[in-house]
Amino acid sequence: MTRLASAFTRAADQGHAALVTFVTAGDPAPNATAAILDALVAGGADVIELGMPFTDPMADGPAIQAANLRSLAAGTTTADVLAIATAFRARHPEVPMVLMGYANPMTRRGPEWFASAARDAGADGVICVDIPAEEDDSLGEALRAAGIGNVRLATPTTDAARLPAVLEGASGFLYYVSVAGITGLQQAATASIEAAVARLKAATDLPIAVGFGVRTPEQAAAIGRVADGVVVGSAIVELVGRHGADAAEPVRTYIESLKTALVAARKEVA
Amino acid sequence: MNAPNSFRAQPDDRGHFGQFGGRFVAETLMPLILDLEREYIAAKADPAFQAEFDDLLEHYVGRPSPLYYAERLTEALREGAPEGMGAEIWFKRDELNHTGAHKINNCIGQILLARRMGKTRIIAETGAGQHGVATATVCARFGLPCVIYMGATDVARQQPNVFRMKLLGAEVVPVTSGAATLKDAMNEGLRDWVANVHDTFYIIGTAAGPHPYPELVRDFQSVIGREAREQMLKRTGKLPDMLVAAIGGGSNAIGLFHPFLDDASVQMLGVEAAGEGLDKRHAASLAGGAPGILHGNRTYLLQDEDGQITEAHSISAGLDYPGIGPEHAWLRDIGRVEYTAVTDTEALDAFQLLCRTEGIIPALEPSHAIAAVAKVARTMPRDKVILANLCGRGDKDIFTVAEALGVQM
Q: Of A167, B141, B184, B279, which is the most buried if we count CB atoms within 10 A?
């Protein structure tokens, strides 16, 4: 079983949704990310999304845009991101980690180069925001050849006719973007998320992680009752923005609060 | 590389021009882009759509635009040219269109598509403001609300166009991220679109972005080349020997070039903005870029070794973009069109040259084309004909030019 599959299974066995946490690599500086990643794990994150900074993060809201710019202003390179991933893998052999970002930094040296580099850095999968299923040969084929997950995104606009194409060649987990919009701004109604997750579950065996706009433990708990995973990004990145190099402790505390809520969520139902 | 049977058969059904183009967008936008493609295919086959487009171009835009022989410019460039050299220079006068540039051709086509799709809100990005003005214009004409994203730097240097857009009822949103120019305005346009897919149509201003935009913008702008081809044959009895057009994203150039692509005798020259020089800050993505993925398509981009996009620079806000339409990237790689680059200084010289020889104040964008024409005309015999696209008028640029020339207004 892959690290990703194990993590979702373990979370399910323990009676909670997997907590999937995003930070931008190199924010506020390349040498500050390790402590923040460790804080995510210490706080109870089940899956790590490590964001690759990009000059033009056009699917992201203000919080993650700012994180991208802080990271690049600190001089973060692709080599730095891969080094951060490699070091994380050495410290945390069991915690799955996916690289998340945009097509151009990922494919600059060719998809095969990136897929191998990501695998060698210990990444379990890749989420590329702007390579849809239609352009799979630009990265997905190389990821599959390298044996790492090609995590696809489904959205409220992904209709039933289109869903099979999105799922074809998807692996690791399915990331359901719960609102049509950019990261960090608003959250979908729980009822609509529940219906969407049911629809996706009928079409795939992949774990479904739901994200976009999840901030509070209450929101996380509500989604955690119906989805296999809950993704939190902008709220963590805002803590990094506020606390900079001292972000680890506030991040850990915040992650703990989310995790506690996720663990409690299904108990309340049961 | 083997030449294809036709240079006019691109893109393929996935929107690829060779290795370029495509649909590199977030999943949220993908269904909408597929809808747009279906709607565009239906519209192309609908005589009523074409008739309405043609009618608006004739009676609202003022087409066909004239084809003009620039006699005094031709003579001026022959001075100092080697004996017998100095090609005839002709202009396609798209600066005489309603709103003062070629941009309106595309906006008419896209707003008709928006209406067909039942969209009730229009957004657009703009650099120099010409596309913003054209979009605001068609929105006023069709009674649709309009939001224009414009880099804060461009808002400052294109005040007349900002005021025009506001007069036309558009909301102009200054974008402060990045260098606050066209690229950043496009990012913000995409962010708006992804959050408002249900009711919003994005009128992209150049022949770039995700498929089908490069194709449909090219088709709407190809009225330039179709008219020019017919006019030239009628006036001179032959095809021009060379076409010249400025390129930011490349919509006026592809509009002029495309109807001539299969005329083997017609050479074509696309002119990028070399800014302060190709070894300094510039906006020439073919001359100084590498293939990559941005804003929905794979094309040549100004970028570093990690794929981070580098800031473009040009005195012309309309050319100040780190990418180029994917069809140009393809035409360059297969060698059908040649591309060159012209500096800010050369464009300013050409701007003044045209003012004084022809009584035409050109925009800074076609001033780049004119600068390239001035260089190449002297290397071609007198019986050769160069046709350049005068894609916009310069009223909007007089403050920028005054500042560059050290004139206090």
A: B184
* Strand ranges, E, within B5-51: 16-17, 20-24
Number of continuous H segments (helices) and E segments (strands) in chain B:
16, 14
Contact A55 B308 (CB under 8 A): yes
Instruction: Say if CB A207 and CB A229 are below 8 A apart.
Output: yes
Could you report the per-residue pLDDT of B14-69, keeping only the tens digit for each?
999 999 999 999 999 999 999 999 999 999 999 999 999 999 999 999 999 999 99
Residue in B28, B187, B303 to test binding to A, most A beta-carbons within 10 Å = B28
pLDDT tens for B305-347 read 999 999 999 999 889 899 999 999 999 999 999 999 999 999 9
Number of compact structural domains in chain A: 1
Instruction: Give start-end residues of each CATH 3.40.50.1100 domain in chain B.
Output: 16-59+103-217, 63-100+222-404
The shortest C-alpha distance from A41 to chain B (Å) reads: 28
Would you give the DSSP letter of residue B352? Answer: H
Task: Enter the ipTM.
Answer: 0.96
Just list the catalytic residues of A. Answer: 49, 60
Gap between the Cα atoms of A149 and A183, Å rounded: 22
Structural domain B16-59+103-217, CATH architecture: 3-Layer(aba) Sandwich (3.40)
What's the order of all strands across the beta sheet hosting B171-175?
B171-175, B146-151, B121-126, B200-202
Say yes or no: domain B63-100+222-404 is CATH 3.40.50.1100: yes
In this structure, are strands B290-294 and B67-69 parallel, antiparallel, or unpaired? Answer: unpaired
Specify the pTM. Answer: 0.96
CB pairs under 8 A between A and B: 118
B88 Cβ contact list (under 8 Å, min separation 6): B69, B74, B382, B383, B384, B385, B386
